[in-house]
Amino acid sequence: MTTTQKSVVVTGASRGIGRAVALSFAREGYNVWALARSASALESLRKEGGERIRTHEVDVVDEAALLAACKRILAEGAPRVLVNNAGITVSAPLTKTRTEDLARVMAVNVTAPFILCRELMPAMAQAGGGRVINIGSMASMKGMKYTSAYCASKHALLGMTRALATEYAKKNITVNQVNPGWVETDMFTGATAAISKTTGRSDEQAREALASMNAMGRIIQPEEVAALCAFLASDAAAGITGSAYAIDGGELG
């Protein structure tokens, strides 16, 4: 690529996968725009990652705030990489999933990545190219009960990934999706807590139940997802676009 600035935008950067991704790119010499809602968590990230971390407090559901963040980023040059990581889930049967629940999940998991792509990708193309990496889920590839809103959003994200990969293929921008299984994050902790509350199992038993869903019988670490993102951002991945990479311990088989 011939972009002039080695920078990356990471949403949901204050914890979990996003934090690991931000730190990984900082170690690789990127200037990191770390976007998240929590100012204190972002400050913790900045202290750990050092001078390459630039934080921006923003709720991706707030379109005006998100557009302002894009404007601030572009004022310093087009980023080389965009990692759309921010995501939320709702776990409930269909009849207990409210319309407002669906709307918020779609706003965070689909609309925000769409806006970021729309605002940043043209500048990336003009600067010579770049990489877009969307963080999906195993729920992008299969249905899972009690997560209809989440599955719908992650399937939609994959559709957007493939469409933009085609649209920008000749503009030197690759667009790919990483689909993790259960990862050691706050979302995973919430899932184990819900299992414990519903079934009476211990936290450890709940962890084992979720780990047993994949062939390896283990939980993926955020740093493993970050390593895959780093590869997709590298020159070695220049010919890869419109692809969905599972990192799920073999759950999808």
UniProtKB/TrEMBL annotation:
It comes from the Bacteria. InterPro entries: NAD(P)-bd_dom_sf, Sc_DH/Rdtase_CS, SDR, SDR_fam. Pfam families: adh_short_C2. GO terms for biological process: monocarboxylic acid metabolic process. PANTHER family: 3-OXOACYL-(ACYL-CARRIER-PROTEIN) REDUCTASE, 3-OXOACYL-[ACYL-CARRIER-PROTEIN] REDUCTASE FABG. Belongs to the short-chain dehydrogenases/reductases (SDR) family. This is SDR family oxidoreductase.
